[in-house]
Amino acid sequence: MRTARLPVDGAVSLAVDIWPGGEGAGFLLAHGLASNSQLWWATAERLHELGHACASVDQRGHGRSDKPDDGYTVDRACADLAAVLSHLRREVPGFDDRIVVAGQSWGGNVVLELAWRDPDMLAGVVGVDGGTIELSRPFPVWQECARALAPPPLAGTPLEEIEAFLRRSHPHWPESGIRATLASLEVRADGTVAPWLSFERHMLLLRALWEHHPSTRYPEIKVPVLLVPADSGGSDDISTGKRESVDEAVRAIPRAAAHWFSPADHDIHAQFPDELAELLHAEATGGVLA
Q1: CA dihedral of residues 102, 108, 110, 116 (deg, nearest 10)
Q2: What are the tens digits of pLDDT across the range 8-57?
Q3: What angle do CA 15, 269, 171 make, to 5 degrees?
Q4: What is the pTM of this model?
Q5: pLDDT tens digits for 193-215?
């Protein structure tokens, strides 16, 4: 794996981790809101072992990428990924005519929007517990969404407290998932942390996600779509609602399939990186993405 900084918008560049070479479809992997590229590393390494070139990107405002004051919209996120795709196709072995773009959570909505806007760039898209998120359904008023989903005030919290909380909350995650989740935080000299994505920029992206309506895109999407949702494995209202929204998408998208991880956490790529990689390989070689 090597890391490159790729220009996407004037002076703005993004950090992209690249595993070049392979005979199968190439994969560009996009993280979710307030996350980072490293959450995809373990999945990318397994995909590379299975014969796929891979790249994972720190999106604008996140991780090691530039953090300008503007551009925190779905439009700009799509344009950023399109610029990364163009570079990969020109410069990196293994990224040819067949590139699949996978996004987790908010990133899933972004890659589905990209598929609708620029289908000729892609061989398919994957929404990993994302792509079907419509926050305006449970929160018809933006202020309600903002109050419910604003990020917690982590700045100034000791790193050891955050790490201990993660380990208690996710006792069955592999070490790679814990370390990657911690990489979403800047560690200061005094041992406290702050999110790489600032609160103000987080809220801009949350508002953009609230305004996004992927269901309006479903019938017009021209590339194959694989949805990889997660739920608790129970019959609670959240799981039931998610299953209904995924079923709606599979019915409406011309070529789509869903594969559930259940029970599983929202960060499937952190919890089950190898299993996710093997699913993506199978679908790209003989399934809906083939």
Answers
A1: 80
A2: 998 999 999 999 999 999 999 999 999 999 999 999 999 999 999 999 99
A3: 120
A4: 0.97
A5: 999 999 999 999 999 999 999 99
Identify any residues that bridge with 102 across adjacent strands, giving them in sequence order: 29, 126
Q: Which residues pair with 54 in a beta bridge?
A: 19, 27
- Amino acid at the residue 190: D
Give CA torsion, residues 35, 41, 42, 46, to 10 deg.
140
Q: Tokens 């305004």: give the residue.
A: 211
